[in-house]
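Issue: ligand-bound run for tryptophan - logging full I/O for the record.

Environment: standard queue, default settings, no custom constraints.

Inputs:
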Amino acid sequence: MSDTAVQTPDSALAQPAKHKPLVFSGVQPTGNLHLGNYLGAIRNWVPMQEEMPCIFCVVDMHAITASFEPDLADKTREIAAAYIASGIDPERSIVFAQSRVPAHAELAWIFNCIARIGWLDRMTQFKEKAGKNKERSSAGLYVYPVLMAADILAYKATHVPVGEDQKQHLELARDIAQKFNNDLNEPGWFPQPEPMILGPTPRVMSLRDGKAKMSKSEPSDLSRINLKDSNDEIATKIRKARTDPEPIGGSMAEIDARPEASNLIGIYAALAGTEKEKVLAQFDGAQFSGFKNELAELLVSTIGPIRDRMDHMLKDKAEIDRILSRGAERADAIAAPILAETKRIVGFL
Ligand code: AMP
Ligand code: TRP
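Outputs:
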């Protein structure tokens, strides 16, 4: 099979040549999935299935690095349902929960001994998440990016589609891969995974504050569109989204200096499958009220069917569990031999 032919991740297994293209990405089962997760990550995964074998993980071990509720299993099912409802095909791609494949934790330990404290001290997401409470944060939160590197490299994945906020973590994964290869004198053992930060909205901003990222943890629900929102909720949130008093218009540089306006135009462009420049030209001189009606309609027609498919899938938990178990078996079959060889390289008996 040539590199460009469609493969499943399992068929990639049969290919011993180094570093075949392989996609790996994941989302944490915390809070509500929102438009940022969808436009920054999940939506971009769907077409990749046509180009490369893909592995999509629900990273439940990452979800326990901060406080969490006992409904982790249901949250995990919800994310898996969202992947599939968004167009991930669990027959072709591998969909599974991180905690079901032991290689993630085992490789993370080895990588904890490769990564330097100085590298982790530079991670901005830890600083944001720990805030003033650094001393009381879990040690897991601190080494979170090391586990992320293990997620990717346990499969020798080469392409990692994520939102812009994950770029620094990908750089760390590359540094870990390189230091492991150098220190253990195994050039090329681990690949250098490439971040793929795609589309006009690599960073979807809050609807209430154009300078803050749309996030699961923001207390105001008006700040985000959740994949579970009803059509009415979507319309209300867009109507209430903060804008400035000027009509739409001006150059890209001018619109980018208006963060709330720029965010809404970016969201429209992503949903319409076009570029911000074109949306700006289309609505030149228009008031936000009319634009918002059209944006709400676009959102409802995109998110609505995904939400309905998710709801339908979540009625049959046993079927989701079956998909995730099968996914874990397939993932383990790829990761276990890579882990075994990595342990041998380290020198474990
Ligand atoms: P998380 O919710 O932190 O598990 O993120 C899951 C994926 O969604 C990652 O690829 C993030 O980069 C992406 N993501 C999260 N929030 C946003 C956002 N506001 N804009 C774009 N991408 C995002
Ligand atoms: N840290 C990522 C986030 O919060 C989630 C994640 C964990 C991930 N492991 C990964 C993403 C591996 C891509 C690849 O968004």
